[in-house]
Design goal:
Elements: E1 6-7, E2 13-14, H1 28-68, H2 74-78, H3 80-86, H4 97-107, H5 113-130, H6 134-144, H7 152-159, H8 166-174, H9 182-187, E3 190-192, E4 198-200, H10 208-239, H11 242-253, H12 260-271, H13 276-283, H14 299-322, H15 328-335, H16 340-351, H17 353-368, H18 372-377, H19 385-396, H20 399-423
Antiparallel strand pairs: 1-2, 3-4
Helix pairs in contact: 1-20, 3-4, 5-6, 10-11, 10-14, 10-17, 12-14, 14-17, 15-16, 19-20
């Protein structure tokens, strides 16, 4: 290492090449780069646990969900020989005897029964998503397939009627790929016809698109209700003396200190036809006993309960912005001749837009994926798409369709957020 052997006119040490050096002779530029690198490594080490948490419990599950929505290994793993022979089938009539022979070979290929069932079981479940009774056809055939003899076409059609239907074979041929779009086709209330074209399902089977629209409408309605109720509360909080404002803030935050299940159950008690609200209205004579309101197990119950639960998410951003608005602005506007409403509309309200935007985004994004409250108080007309996703995960076990619905919901929220950013700008949001 070159030692300092000179001093510049300002008293700084330099080496023999005229470079600035530190007291130990290290070139100043190298020392600065080393210090900067050390600072970056220290900063990364501090955020590494959070980064690991986000990747493990947020990014990775989302990636897994989106992958599951197109992953389609069941048919490929269970029927490789059948798919190879079925590749040239034109989709008309029944396949040839060669295809049935390949099917027999696939179903008896593994002599180990547990390992065979690990392939054939998922195959029946996957085909049953596309065609009712396919699972029973697979399971019934599996029990006796080892005893089948040529001609195999007759043996399979005798084992179950579905083997004699070209529709089942068209499904096997179409789904015999490692990736599929069938889950997204079903999530859009579409299906494949005999020619393989995507067409609308019969009207009595179209449920998902209407659920998406209902989810969007309910989320917008809940956001609007929280704004209408939260804006006056936040405004009143911002003008009260601090000691009174703190008491009111405790009342606003009180729902956070109560279990979500308890709050939702309380609304069931309040809103049912024999509940507190209807009994009070009948008691004071506003309605008669036959005219009790239906306030629960519908969209009305979902909106009321979720507005109460999500109200603090609108109040807090609004309050944080309103506290920063100087009261002198309104007094100046009034002193210049503006009426109170004009001063509020043209001076005060525009300054609260960052808080409105922040609260609206929070409430909308939370409500669009809410599950517990719509499931308890929504009934049939107040259900949201999240409830249908949960049903496929817990009951029908169609995880591919649930993943497709979840991916579409995620992409829809991102598109709405992008649209908001283009029209308003996320740089204007203020969360506190």
């Amino acid at each position: 290492m070159a030692m300092a052997d000179a001093t510049d006119p300002h008293g700084a040490e330099t080496d023999s090449r005229g470079r600035l050096v530190t007291s130990d002779g290290t070139p100043l530029r190298r020392a600065l780069e080393r210090a900067n690198r050390r600072r970056k490594l220290t900063a990364f080490a501090l955020v590494a646990p959070l980064l690991f948490f986000i990747l493990t419990f947020f990014a990775f599950p989302i990636a897994q969900m989106m992958w599951r929505s197109v992953d389609n290994p069941q048919v490929v793993n269970a029927l490789p020989r059948t798919l190879e022979v079925l590749r040239d089938w034109d989709g008309q009539g029944l396949p040839s005897e060669e295809v049935f022979a390949a099917l027999h070979a696939d179903m008896v290929a593994d002599q180990d029964l547990p390992r065979r069932e690990q392939k054939i079981g998922p195959l029946g479940i996957r085909l049953n998503y596309e065609l009712s009774a396919a699972r029973s056809a697979i399971s019934r055939t599996t029990r006796n397939v080892a005893d089948f003899e040529a001609p195999f076409r007759d043996a399979f059609t005798d084992a179950h009627r579905l083997w004699g239907q070209p529709e089942l074979w068209r499904i096997i041929q179409r789904e015999g790929r490692p990736l599929t779009l069938s889950y997204y086709v079903a999530a859009l209330d579409r299906e494949y016809d005999e020619q393989g074209n995507v067409v609308l399902r019969p009207e009595n089977r179209q449920i998902y698109v209407s659920l998406f629209w209902r989810t969007l409408w309910l989320s917008l309605a809940i956001t609007a209700m929280t704004f209408l109720l939260g804006f006056p509360i936040a405004f009143y909080l911002s003008i009260l003396p601090m000691r009174y404002a703190n008491l009111l803030m405790i009342a606003v935050l009180l729902p956070f200190w109560t279990s979500l299940l308890v709050r939702t159950s309380a609304w069931i008690v309040l809103l049912q036809q024999q509940g507190v609200i209807n009994n009070a209205l009948v008691g004071i004579g506003l309605i008669d006993d036959a005219g009790r309101f239906s306030l629960i197990y519908n969209q009305t119950g979902t909106i009321i309960a979720m507005t109460h639960i999500l109200l603090p998410f609108m109040v807090l951003p609004l309050y944080s912005v309103m506290r920063t608005i100087p009261p002198s602005y309104m007094r100046a506007a009034k002193s210049l001749g503006a009426r109170p409403w004009t001063a509020f509309r043209r001076v005060y309200f525009p300054q609260t837009l960052p808080g409105i935007g922040a609260g609206g985004v929070l409430v909308f994004i939370i409500s669009i994926g809410y599950y517990i409250t719509p499931a308890l108080v929504g009934g049939q007309s107040g259900r949201m798409i999240s409830n249908e996703i949960a049903r496929h995960i817990q009951q029908s076990l169609n995880w591919g369709l649930a993943a497709a619905l979840g991916s579409m919901l995620l992409v829809g929220v991102l598109l709405l957020y992008w649209l908001y950013n283009r029209l308003v700008g996320t740089d204007s949001l203020k969360f506190g």
